[in-house]
Amino acid sequence: GITDVTVVVGRKGNSTVLQCGGDPGGNITGVIWKIHHINNSSCLSSYADFANRGPQIYSNCSTRMTFTNITLTIQNTQISDGGNYTCEMSSQIEGTFITTTILQVLAQPSVSLDINTDGSLECRASGGFPSAEISWIPHSDDINITKIKDLNDTWTVISTYKSDGDNVTCLVSHPTFVNVWNQSIALSDKTRNWIWILVGFAILLITALCIVYWNQKKIRTCSKKSLNTSPPQQVEGFAEVCGKLLVVKVKSQAGLQIISMCYIFYKPN
Question: Domain Ig-like spans what residues (predicted)?
């Protein structure tokens, strides 16, 4: 017979149609699909037209695979469906044709670029197959790449980047992308945002602690008044409770930035 090899690229989640060669002419007496998946599993499906018994179909393949004459259709294609599909087709006139189809299943990753609490950048490509390639502009010697294989055979790639530069661009390449995915971020702006968030949180925390402590002092003073007939002592001033100087230091990737804030409270005369 004649052997023909073709490559078909499918997408995860879509339907994929494979053909067992062209029309051989005349009546088709039998079709056998021998399938070897990339995970080393295999299955077989056959169709035979017997004159005395009619068409006979056998298959131990996934129920997502349907066979119509010389066409094999895979519904909701998965990464594990990839592999070699060999079809042997018999015709009364032309004899036997052997066709091998190599199915490659691709999954497009979702990409994101974020900043971590330590000031480093994180570029993430999730759910891709094959795994995505991540690079940075400008290049840095402090880049860490982690690859995680997901339960559905896709890959998640995480690249973290540390640099003193102001503007950084993440580049992601994948066979499903027409163009290289890219996104830029201004480190200085992001760092300033994190600084003010931390400063605001520190101010709220210190203020709350001061109010609680002041209220406790008032309660203790009132209790002493009820037990002591001597003239009431002046309640300790708010300045002594909270302190006269509050300094908040925040270190950013761009360098050491020190934000000093003075809160001075005076006792009433």
Answer: 12-99, 100-188
- pLDDT tens readout for residues 96-146: 889 999 999 999 999 999 999 888 999 999 999 999 999 999 988 899 999
Instruction: Report long-range pairs for 231-239 (Cβ below 8 Å, ≥24 apart).
Output: 237/265, 237/266, 237/267, 237/268, 238/210, 238/214, 238/265, 238/267, 239/264, 239/265, 239/266, 239/267
Residue 256 counted as domain residue: yes
Phi and psi angles of residue 118, each rounded to the nearest 5 degrees, phi first: -85, 5
In tens, the pLDDT along 43-74 reads 999 988 765 666 788 899 999 999 887 889 99
> CA neighbours within 13 Å on the CB side: how many for 163?
21
183: tokens are 């996104």
Residue 259 tokens, joined: 């934000």
Indicate the pTM of the whole model: 0.65
Q: Is 84 exposed, middle or buried (0-12, 13-18, 19+ CB in 10 A)?
A: middle
Residue 265 to residue 126: CA distance in whole angstroms: 53
- CA-to-CA distance for 214 and 243, rounded, in angstroms? 12
* One-letter identity of residue 158: I
Gap between the Cα atoms of 229 and 232, Å rounded: 8
Q: Verify that 14 and 100 share a domain, yes or no.
A: yes
Rounded Cα distance, 111 and 249, in Å:
34
The predicted-structure confidence for 73-106, as pLDDT tens digits, reads as follows 999 999 999 999 999 988 777 778 899 999 999 9
- Alpha carbons 264 and 227: distance in angstroms, whole number: 33
Structural domain harbouring 101: 2-106
